[in-house]
From TrEMBL:
GO BP terms, alphabetized: carbohydrate metabolic process
TM segment ranges: none
GO molecular function per UniProt: hydrolase activity, hydrolyzing O-glycosyl compounds
Keyword Hydrolase: yes
Record has Hydrolase as a keyword: yes
SUPFAM superfamilies assigned: Six-hairpin glycosidases (SSF48208)
Keyword field: Hydrolase
Record domain Glycoside hydrolase family 65 central catalytic: where: 308-518, 531-602
UniProt-listed Pfam families: Glyco_hydro_65m
InterPro entries: 6-hairpin_glycosidase_sf, 6hp_glycosidase-like_sf, GH65_N, Glyco_hydro_65_M
Protein name from the UniProt record: Glycoside hydrolase family 65 protein
Length: 679
């Protein structure tokens, strides 16, 4: 039955997702709709299939309590995107429009919707999360009138009742010299008063510098409820003419500003009095710079779109200037996972970002350094030395996993995963000042943790007992293969870092690393843990010893582990497992199996109409940025043959699928190198 479900899901995702070109994905079908978020690393705007609809807005690094689970949860922002429009007294709805079309332009990070209202008008609107003004959303609107019409447009700030206390809604017209600046504003505290949030918005007329104020529509303020703050205008549009304007909003919090209310007004005024051309040109310039790191696939348009969409999301959810990390779902949704930070960031998203954008990659590792003291407190709390990073982290750096979940208490490999990302950042950037200031302090404390965490056996070997491994189906086990392998790697990396800085390494690091046990079956196949008996697994665990840890190196051993564990992967598990298998097969030169597993790693998880990824083939939550990271690693480190080494990034034995004509990896590493793979 599961095989049939897998086939059906794969067929659906293949058939319904439109194909246009490598940068644009369009749809005319709003059924079974999963939107693609517009994000700039500070806020995420999730459009809907409904005309002028925004499902919600998510604010990065703004956490308050989840009343049900009693843990932290990332906050929704005030929703400033749900515009209403009337033409000749009739409200535009899904039911009275035709020719509906949406196009996601990944190159410029914008979503354009167009439709026809009866025989009267064609309307276009484009949503941006401005990369250059990270607290701002911008909706650019154009109405083409086929006959003379009277248009009424209402912009709205809606405050989610689940995330906020009752807002204070205002409207005022600020004046300086001869300039009038209308500002709609809502200010509220988050549910448990942890944060103050202010949203300001206004209409922008694109000819503001050339027309007098008297020519602009008069604005009317209203409140349809205490949670909605509205601003409207009416305007006649003559036949065969157009009206072009924008609805622009700014959302600020006391996390970033001492006075978020005033700052949201200032940024709104900045957007109001800066031309559309200037604002959007800066946004496009920054995205064009991001796309200096790109993957080009010739001969497979669908794969090109899918891979670029994955990269688009990692770029969207990260910034190089905020020292924040990326949650499994990025800034697309609150649930699942409450916007918390997991190993997903270091093991899955970080490596592609490290290849293409060292600035964003540095933010991810700096986030962990920023919370080193909290990790040291956690280690002390549980009786260990060094630093013990939480399985789920938020803006406090403390453990925020729900208490019922064993992962929060026992899934300790994340502490090693973080150290691995730290050393890889240094290997790629060779930034010795960063290594001394931030990298080595983390590597040292992580190594001290593993020395205290390991238990000495009677034969002088070391075990790591009572953990949850990467395969979370198995809890409270001893000597989990990946946990032990990642601990070995982290300990060795700490020694290398000390040597690099001419610091004497603690000899216990190497001693323990050399003696941590990894168990095997009689035929040499790696055991997932000391008592593993062939159970189904949630995701790759043992095979991570081949990639990315490079502990299992022998070809026959690698193949044994691959063939043993692939059939045991559950359809209920996340996508990354098959990405790992794909990478390993590609590195062995087996293009057919590598391509098969590459496609299986994400195609069953794609959702119409754009290809948004869910965590599993049977789930509908998206966008799963962790899966994007796995997919991109399959291309970069599998087919592309890239390796992170002590000499930097090198290419060894790339492996091109027969379905592709050429693979180009552009903008790799600090030198922005290009790697080309052909048959």
């Amino acid at each position: 039955m599961k095989k049939i479900m897998f086939a059906i899901l794969s067929l659906i995702s293949t058939v319904v997702i439109g194909q246009q070109d490598g940068w644009n994905i369009s749809t005319t079908n709003s059924e079974n709709y999963t939107g693609i978020v517009l994000s700039n690393g500070q806020l995420g705007i999730l459009p809907s299939e409904h005309v002028f609809g925004i499902k919600h807005i998510v604010l990065n690094n703004i956490y308050d309590s989840d009343a049900d689970l009693e843990i932290s949860r990332i906050s929704q922002g005030m929703n400033f995107g749900n515009i209403e429009m009337e033409i000749d007294g009739e409200k535009i709805t899904d039911a009275n429009i035709s020719n509906w079309n949406q196009t996601l332009n990944m190159k410029e990070a914008k979503l354009t919707t167009s439709f026809t209202f009866k025989d009267k008008a064609t309307i276009y609107y484009t949503i941006y999360a401005l990369r250059n003004v990270p607290n701002a959303g911008y909706i650019d609107i154009k109405i083409d009138a086929n006959k003379e019409i009277l248009t009424k447009v209402t912009g709205k700030i809606s405050t989610p009742t689940t995330d906020y206390q009752k807002p204070r809604n205002t409207y005022k017209i600020l004046k300086d010299l001869e300039t009038s600046m209308p500002i709609l504003q809502s200010v509220a505290f988050s549910s448990f008063k942890k944060h103050k949030v202010s949203t300001s918005a206004t209409f922008i007329w694109h000819n503001i510098n050339s027309s007098s104020e008297s020519e602009r529509p008069e604005l009317t303020h209203s409140t349809s409820s205490e949670w909605d703050n509205c601003l409207s205008f009416e305007k006649k549009i003559s036949k065969n003419s157009s009206l072009e304007f924008a609805w622009a909003a700014v959302e600020c919090t006391d996390k970033d500003f001492a006075d978020p209310k005033s700052e949201s007004e200032r940024i709104t005024i900045f957007n109001l009095l800066t031309s559309k051309e200037t604002l959007l040109q800066q946004h496009k310039y920054l995205w064009n710079t991001l796309w200096g790191g790109d993957i080009i696939i010739e001969g497979d348009l669908q794969a090109q779109q899918d891979v670029r969409l994955a990269l688009y999301h990692l770029y969207s959810f990260g910034r190089g200037d905020n020292d924040l990390s990326i949650a499994p779902m990025g800034l697309s949704v609150q649930v699942p996972y409450n916007g918390h930070i997991f190993w997903d960031s270091e093991l899955w998203m970080f490596p592609p970002l490290l290849m293409f954008n060292q600035d964003i990659a540095r933010s991810l590792v700096n986030y962990r350094f920023k919370h080193l003291d909290a990790a040291k407190r956690k280690a002390k709390t549980y009786g260990y030395l060094g630093a013990m990073f939480p399985w789920e982290s938020d803006d406090t750096g403390e453990e925020v996993t729900p208490p019922f979940a064993l992962t929060g208490t026992f899934e300790h490999h994340i502490t090693a995963d973080i150290a691995i990302a730290f050393w890889n950042y240094y290997r790629v950037t060779n930034d010795k000042a960063w290594l001394m200031e931030k990298g080595y302090p983390v590597l040292k404390e992580v190594a001290n943790f593993w020395v205290s965490r390991a238990v000495k056996n009677s034969d002088e070997s070391y075990s790591i007992k009572n953990v949850v491994g990467a395969n979370e189906f198995a809890a409270n086990i001893d000597d989990n293969a990946f946990t032990n392998g990642s601990a070995i790697t982290a300990l060795n990396y700490a020694t290398l870092a000390a040597t690099e800085l001419a610091i004497k390494a603690d000899p216990e690091w190497k001693k323990v690393a050399d003696r941590i046990v990894i168990h095997h079956f009689k035929d040499g196949t790696t055991m997932e843990h000391s008592k593993y008996a062939g159970d189904q697994i949630k995701q790759a665990d043992v095979n991570l010893l081949s990639y990315p840890l490079d502990i299992v190196k022998d070809r026959q051993h690698i193949l044994k582990d691959l063939k043993y564990y692939e059939p045991k992967l559950s359809i209920e598990g996340p996508a990354m497992g098959k990405s790992v298998f794909s990478i390993i097969y590609a590195r062995l030169g087996d293009a057919n199996n590598a391509y098969r597993l590459f496609k299986e790693s994400y195609e069953p998880n794609r959702h119409a109409p754009f290809g948004a990824l869910s965590e599993t083939a049977t789930a509908n939550n998206s966008y799963f940025a962790t899966g994007a990271g796995g997919m991109l690693q399959a291309v970069l480190f599998g087919f592309g043959g890239l390796h992170i080494t002590d000499k930097g990034i090198i290419q060894e034995t790339p492996c091109l699928p027969k379905q592709w004509k050429k693979l180009v990896l552009k903008g790799i590493g600090p030198k922005k190198e290009t790697f080309v793979v052909t048959h």
